[in-house]
């Protein structure tokens, strides 16, 4: 009996090791002889070939861009694919400086209809956007031509974006649309405050998105959450420079969908023009809703407009400010939010006339004003928030209009 066991064990160990080895994804190195990619040269074709092979594989595979700097004109990697893919960027991918050399749409690198994608490797996606920012008038011209987004994810499911950097995008750094169950962790956005229209992460019509342990410095919203989103969690995010963390803008277009289940927690905002805010356009073409939105445990350092609900958002003065927003805001809480601000109006809740905000809570709010434009204060209209442990100047002391 002992002899039989002695003979069986080595075979068992061999089979176990063979099974483990077989489960490892096949590595498709874009600099291998098969794909022919080389540092300091354009590897667009090499990456496209590697993607074609990975997408056709019936077992998990791994595309590898090794350390070094590589030129990449841009493309959209399309699924559906037959198995999970890890897209590992260890080096730097550089976009052309001249936007005319990029794809005809506004996407530099896209992933479309992919299930089980992991984007990882510690590398950098460098949009080289400085020249584009100088020619960008989208902050004042609604008809401006859209620049290229660094990373666009459409219809991504059960996927992860881990430990990579988006640098100097010409437009938004990351845009997620109609994605489900996506985790963004250890992600970095790097761009100066003068970079125009460069939202760090924009989310639209997606469900189950988790943004964790992420650092965002850019020239627009660090995170912007548009219409149709639900079950979005943002935790341990550092923001600055930028325009803060925003829900919206909402209520601009007739086909917009409700927003619900948004949780922003344990974040730090430094030197941002806004803190946490919900913004909707006046004169909305259609009724809408934004509900179950919660901001908690947030530290702000030298922030303008730390807490803001703005239902009169109109950046180009091209809307009818006298016509109220039709987006109903309800079940919103701001809890344990403290720090310093550079605007004397530390809390501003401006809700829609005729459609007041409902079930709004302010708890454990405290700011120190560092400027010289008068005492710190708050302004509220068309809202009667529940107030807990908030000093009087911040407790909707002025302009507290009845609903």
TrEMBL record:
GO terms for molecular function: polygalacturonase activity. GO terms for biological process: carbohydrate metabolic process; cell wall organization. Pfam families: Glyco_hydro_28. It comes from the Eukaryota. The active site is at 243. It is found in: Secreted, Cell wall. Belongs to the glycosyl hydrolase 28 family. Keywords: Cell wall, Cell wall biogenesis/degradation, Glycosidase, Hydrolase, Secreted, Signal. InterPro entries: Glyco_hydro_28, PbH1, Pectin_lyas_fold, Pectin_lyase_fold/virulence. This is Exopolygalacturonase-like. Residues 1-23 form the signal peptide.
């Amino acid at each position: 009996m002992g002899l039989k066991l002695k003979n069986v064990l080595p075979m068992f160990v061999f089979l176990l090791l063979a099974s483990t080895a077989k489960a490892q994804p096949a590595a498709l190195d874009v600099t291998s002889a098969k794909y022919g990619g080389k540092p300091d040269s354009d590897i667009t074709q090499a990456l496209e070939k590697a993607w074609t092979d990975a997408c056709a594989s019936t077992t998990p595979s791994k595309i590898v861009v090794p350390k070094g700097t590589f030129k990449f004109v841009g493309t959209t990697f399309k699924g559906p694919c037959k198995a999970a893919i890890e897209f590992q960027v260890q080096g730097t991918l550089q976009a052309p400086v001249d936007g005319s050399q990029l794809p005809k749409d506004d996407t530099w690198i896209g992933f479309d209809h992919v299930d089980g994608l992991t984007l990882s490797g510690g590398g950098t996606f460098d949009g080289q956007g400085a020249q584009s920012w100088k020619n960008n008038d989208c902050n004042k011209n609604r008809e401006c031509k859209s620049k290229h987004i660094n990373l666009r994810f459409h219809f991504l499911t059960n996927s992860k974006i881990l430990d990579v950097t988006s640098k100097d995008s010409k437009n938004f750094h990351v845009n997620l649309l109609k994605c489900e169950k996506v985790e963004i962790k250890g992600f970095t956005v790097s761009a100066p405050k003068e970079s125009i229209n460069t939202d760090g992460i924009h989310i639209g019509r997606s469900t189950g998105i988790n943004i964790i342990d992420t650092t965002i410095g850019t020239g627009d919203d660090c995170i912007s959450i548009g219409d149709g989103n639900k079950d979005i969690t943002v935790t341990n995010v550092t923001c600055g420079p930028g325009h803060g963390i925003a829900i919206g803008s909402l209520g601009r277009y007739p086909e917009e969908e409700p927003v619900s289940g948004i949780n922003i927690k344990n974040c730090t905002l430094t030197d941002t023009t806004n803190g946490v805010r919900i913004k909707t356009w006046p004169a909305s073409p259609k009724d809408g809703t934004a509900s179950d939105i919660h901001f908690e445990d947030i530290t702000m350092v030298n922030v303008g407009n730390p807490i803001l609900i703005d239902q009169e958002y109109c950046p180009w003065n091209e809307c009818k400010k006298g016509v109220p927003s039709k987006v109903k805001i309800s079940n919103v809480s701001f809890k344990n939010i403290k720090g310093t601000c550079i605007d004397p109006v530390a809390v501003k809740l401006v809700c829609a006339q005729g459609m007041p905000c409902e079930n709004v809570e302010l708890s454990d709010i405290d700011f120190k004003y560092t400027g010289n434009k008068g005492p710190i204060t708050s302004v509220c209209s068309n809202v009667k928030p529940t107030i807990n442990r908030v000093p009087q100047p911040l407790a909707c002391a002025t302009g507290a209009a009845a609903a």
